[in-house]
Each structure stands twice: as structure tokens, then as C-alpha cells.
TrEMBL record:
The purine nucleoside phosphorylases catalyze the phosphorolytic breakdown of the N-glycosidic bond in the beta-(deoxy)ribonucleoside molecules, with the formation of the corresponding free purine bases and pentose-1-phosphate. This is Purine nucleoside phosphorylase. Phosphate binds at S35, H66, R86, F87, H88, A112, S216. Belongs to the PNP/MTAP phosphorylase family. It comes from Sinocyclocheilus grahami (Dianchi golden-line fish). It catalyses: guanosine + phosphate = alpha-D-ribose 1-phosphate + guanine; inosine + phosphate = alpha-D-ribose 1-phosphate + hypoxanthine; 2'-deoxyguanosine + phosphate = 2-deoxy-alpha-D-ribose 1-phosphate + guanine; 2'-deoxyinosine + phosphate = 2-deoxy-alpha-D-ribose 1-phosphate + hypoxanthine. A purine D-ribonucleoside binds at E197, N239.
């Protein structure tokens, strides 16, 4: 699966069939680990691990902080598959449809993001209420090309994509974890990257009402929602995006990974508890 122009249902099916022949696990939940958040997979019990390089049709993950492994396992009695290493649009791939063919019903997506909202702090967790898909608005969309009706409709709606019940459940869990003071709910904006924002771009995003910005998530959520998956998303605020010409601060991927590492345990507890509480059989929370 190297160029989306060449990918068809049979390609996804071949990869899914190979995985199903290699593991007894039949996951209903998929987790995508954001930059530096790969340890979310460590909580899985009875693991079956596959290096991306060993999976037919799988591309390589090229970004530091993304290990490049698919981990199957049990979390509180629920069977999950976890991507330790995502593919960004700037890398050119999406594998959500393989998950669909494995039987996955719910996607939990995490990312590292910079904050635009003045009230946010580094280390905050933002439950994603909605997204702005900048590349998508400009016509760069993973659903471009002939529509495959086996996956979903030509014109999928995008309102209410981030499941309300799961968002509420996550809030309740954060309360019981005693971390609600650093939990936010907001709008994630996907930009193409791989550069971080200029100050003028940061100001534009701020004016548009963006709370957090990153270079992932929206394409995955789009494809997942198109094929009928329930979606829940979390952004870890790893940096405040520089919005002032007087501010000498500057962001780096290393700094992003450092904050991710510091907060990954909290995210692991939150995601584990969410999966533990969610009903996966009838697809309701
Ligand atoms: O979205 P994730 O994979 O967490 O990664 C985020 O961190 C990287 C920049 O540091 C970008 O790829 C951005 O999208
Ligand atoms: N575009 C973008 N992606 C990020 N990922 C983590 N922090 C940032 C950021 O400030 N901007």
C-alpha cells in the first residue's frame, strides 16, 4: 500500500487476511499512538507484535517517536490493535481500512499538538470535539478518487463525528483520576506540515477558533467515519504555538517528544479506562 491511487479493496483485504492468519486476536478497537505516545500499547496483554516491515502491503513509519509496530492484545478484556507509529499525510499513507476489514468498530486516535487557545497549558489533554481539515478544504482528501461503496458513501457527513458519549465518558474518567484541571475540549486543526507554523499562520488559526494544531488525525478520522467506525480523539498539548513577534520561543520535534513522554502514563490510564468502560458489542458507549 504505497500510493493511495493504486490501493483498492483487494489490497486492503490481502493485508487484513494476512494479519488475521497470523494472530488469534480479533480486535474491535483500534488505537493510533501520536508522536511519543507509543507506550499506550504497552498496557496490552497477550501481545502479538508485527513490525510494519514484515506486514505485506504495509509502508514504513518514518518519523522519530513512531516505532513502526502493530500490536494486537487484550486491554481489560477487550481485544485491541494498536498502531505504534502512524503514517502522516506528508508520508502519504492511511491504513484505517485495513482495521475496518479486521473487524474494528471504534477508533481511538491520539496526537501531539500545539495549542492556540490562550487558556491551554503545555501538558494539557484536549478531548477533540471537532476538527478543521485544512488540506481537505483545499481538496487534498484521503477520500479523493472513485468512491468504494463497500466502505462508505460518496458524500459522507462530518458533523458529530467525535462520539459524544465517549467524550463524556472521558471527562468523567479524568474527574475520577483527579486530572480534570488539565483537561480541555476543543477543535483540532490539521495542517499539512511537515513544517511548524509561522507566526502569521498561528495568528490566522487562532482567529479561526482553532484550539490545537497538528499534522495528523483528520485524514484517519475521515476514513474511519466514512466506513462507519465510532471515533474518539485526544490531543496532548506539547507546546504553545508562538503567536507573537516578541516571543523568542521556538518549537522542535524533540521538545514535542519530551512532553509526550512526560504525560504518556496519564494518557495510558485514561485510554485504558475508556476502553474498559466502553460497550464494544452494540457500538454504543
Ligand atoms: O500527530 P502526531 O503523530 O502526534 O505528530 C505531531 O508531532 C509531529 C511534530 O512534532 C507532527 O507529525 C505532528 O502531527
Ligand atoms: N503543526 C503543528 N504540529 C504540532 N505537533 C506538535 N506540536 C505542533 C505544532 O505546534 N504545530
Amino acid at each position: 500500500i504505497h500510493s493511495k491511487d493504486q490501493i483498492c479493496h483487494e489490497d486492503y483485504q490481502r493485508t487484513a487476511d494476512w494479519l488475521l492468519s497470523q494472530t488469534q486476536h480479533r480486535p474491535k478497537v483500534a488505537i493510533i499512538c501520536g508522536s511519543g505516545l507509543g507506550m499506550l500499547a504497552d498496557a496490552l496483554k497477550c501481545q502479538d507484535l508485527f513490525k510494519y516491515s514484515d506486514i505485506p502491503g504495509f509502508p514504513q513509519s518514518t518519523v522519530k517517536g513512531h516505532a513502526g509496530r502493530l500490536v494486537f492484545g487484550e486491554l481489560k478484556g477487550k481485544t485491541c490493535v494498536c498502531m505504534q507509529g502512524r503514517f502522516h499525510m506528508y508520508e502519504g499513507h492511511s491504513l484505517i481500512r485495513v482495521f475496518k476489514l479486521l473487524g474494528v468498530e471504534t477508533l481511538i486516535v491520539t496526537n501531539a499538538a500545539g495549542s492556540l487557545a490562550d487558556s491551554y497549558s503545555c501538558g494539557d489533554i484536549m478531548i477533540i470535539r471537532d476538527h478543521i481539515n485544512f488540506p481537505g478544504l483545499a481538496g487534498l482528501n484521503p477520500l479523493n478518487g472513485p468512491n468504494d461503496d463497500k466502505f462508505g458513501p460518496r458524500f459522507p457527513p462530518m458533523s458529530g463525528v467525535y462520539d459524544k458519549n465517549l467524550r463524556k465518558m472521558a471527562f468523567d474518567i479524568c474527574k475520577s483520576m483527579g486530572v480534570s484541571q488539565c483537561v480541555q475540549e476543543g477543535v483540532y486543526c490539521m495542517v499539512g506540515g511537515p513544517n511548524f507554523e509561522s507566526i502569521a499562520e498561528a495568528r490566522l488559526l487562532h482567529r479561526l477558533g482553532v484550539d490545537a494544531v497538528g499534522m495528523s488525525t483528520a485524514p484517519e478520522v475521515l476514513v474511519a467515519s466514512h466506513c462507519g467506525m465510532r471515533v474518539f480523539g485526544l490531543s496532548l498539548i506539547t507546546n504553545k504555538v508562538v503567536k507573537s513577534y516578541e516571543d523568542n520561543a521556538s518549537v522542535s520535534h524533540e521538545a514535542v517528544l519530551e512532553v509526550s513522554k512526560m504525560r504518556s502514563e496519564t494518557l495510558q490510564v485514561l485510554v485504558t479506562e475508556l476502553i474498559s468502560r466502553m460497550d464494544i458489542n452494540n457500538n454504543t458507549a
